[in-house]
């Protein structure tokens, strides 16, 4: 016969109580859990109907009048856009099998109406290398453009269309000599083929210098942060009085798209060059009647500031003044010509200095030259006088 100890009886009693869970407690736990799940569903799991047959347009919030600067910008665009054109350039090719001629689009650019005679101003690089030009006016009409003339040194060209004067709105012309950094500017053009695009900004800098397609410097260029992209070339840069102050010509960007720096040929240059082109197809380009070694050759041959004369054109201004060209002697050794180092007391350190001087000079002007002759061994400084001559212009 065995007897339970007190500890054994106590353990059996606890086990029996633990196995009998209070039903009220279970019910309470279930109620709490249900409330929690319901709240969570309401917050996170509610699924609303996909469609609402009673949906109505939202009420429009009144905005009030436009800001004054917005009104001004809109007015500038509305006034200037009829003067802006879209230019499509084409090359003419011949089918090798049928010998038929056909046109190939080459590119697009912008331009603007200069006068009621149908002259259109654009960049030289927009029309360069093309044989046909289509000019689209702001009203959507298309006109065949004829090449009047161009000046690659200034990246300017003029086309002419035979549109009725009533369709032509010449752009108002301003000045660039009195521009100031910080002034608001507005660019209108056709970037990426998108017609009549307006961008705004300020003048970021003045007196800049960029290279033309001939690698000669264009002086006093306007720098702006108004977005200028491919297709804007040739379009107008305007001031807040709707006046032309420059022709958008270039962007500074490794990717070829807007990067915050754009350039425009100043209107004072445009207003001097364009009438000359209209009068005779070109301007009188001032020169010396020489050809030059490039700067890399100058560094290699003489390694000193100046421009080295390569050839002297027969009968030209340089030949009459007595400038010496470079040549090969009887032993086929190169004999260096004159090194031009000064013109009218202005130092000439590189070719860009010479081109800058000539841009502000006139045909028939007398200038004083200082050259170094006898390089590299028998150096002597020689002073000459020269009468600047006109040079032929280029065709597109």
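Q: What amino acid sequence fits the structure above?
A:
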């Amino acid at each position: 016969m065995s007897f339970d100890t007190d500890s054994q009886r106590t353990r059996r009693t606890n086990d029996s109580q633990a196995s009998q869970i209070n039903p009220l407690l279970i019910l309470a736990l279930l109620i709490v859990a249900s409330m929690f799940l319901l709240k969570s569903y309401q917050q996170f799991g509610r699924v609303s109907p996909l469609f609402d047959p009673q949906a109505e347009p939202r009420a429009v919030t009144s905005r009030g009048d436009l800001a004054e600067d917005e009104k001004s910008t809109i007015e500038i665009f509305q006034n200037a856009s009829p003067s802006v054109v879209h230019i499509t350039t084409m090359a003419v090719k011949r089918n090798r099998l049928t010998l038929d001629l056909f046109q190939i689009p080459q590119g697009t650019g912008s331009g603007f109406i200069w006068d009621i005679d149908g002259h259109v101003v654009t960049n030289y690089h927009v029309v360069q290398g093309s044989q046909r030009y289509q000019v689209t006016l702001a009203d959507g009409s298309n006109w065949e453009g004829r090449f009047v003339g161009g000046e690659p040194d200034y990246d300017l060209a003029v086309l002419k269309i035979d549109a009725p004067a009533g369709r032509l709105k010449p752009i108002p012309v301003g000045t660039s000599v009195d521009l100031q950094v910080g002034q608001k500017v507005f660019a209108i053009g056709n970037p990426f083929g998108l017609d009549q695009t307006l961008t705004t900004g300020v003048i970021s800098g003045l007196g800049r210098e960029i290279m033309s397609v001939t690698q000669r410097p264009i002086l006093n260029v306007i720098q702006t942060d108004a977005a200028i992209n491919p297709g804007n070339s040739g379009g107008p840069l305007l001031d807040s009085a709707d006046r032309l102050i420059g022709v958008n010509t270039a962007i500074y960007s490794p990717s070829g798209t807007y990067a915050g720096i754009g350039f425009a040929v100043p209107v004072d240059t445009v207003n001097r060059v364009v009438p000359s082109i209209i009068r005779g197809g070109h301007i009188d380009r001032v020169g010396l009647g020489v050809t030059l070694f490039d700067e890399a050759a100058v560094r290699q041959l003489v390694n000193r500031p100046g421009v080295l004369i390569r050839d002297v054109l027969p009968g030209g201004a340089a030949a009459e003044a007595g400038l010496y060209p470079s040549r090969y002697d009887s032993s086929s050794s190169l004999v260096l010509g004159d090194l031009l180092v000064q013109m009218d007391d202005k130092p000439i350190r590189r070719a860009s200095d010479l081109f800058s001087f000539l841009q502000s000079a006139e045909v028939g002007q007398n200038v004083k030259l200082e050259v170094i002759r006898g390089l590299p061994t028998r150096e002597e400084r020689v002073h000459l006088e020269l009468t600047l001559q006109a040079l032929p212009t280029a065709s597109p």
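Q: And what stands out in the fold?
A: The two ends are 128 Å apart (CA to CA).
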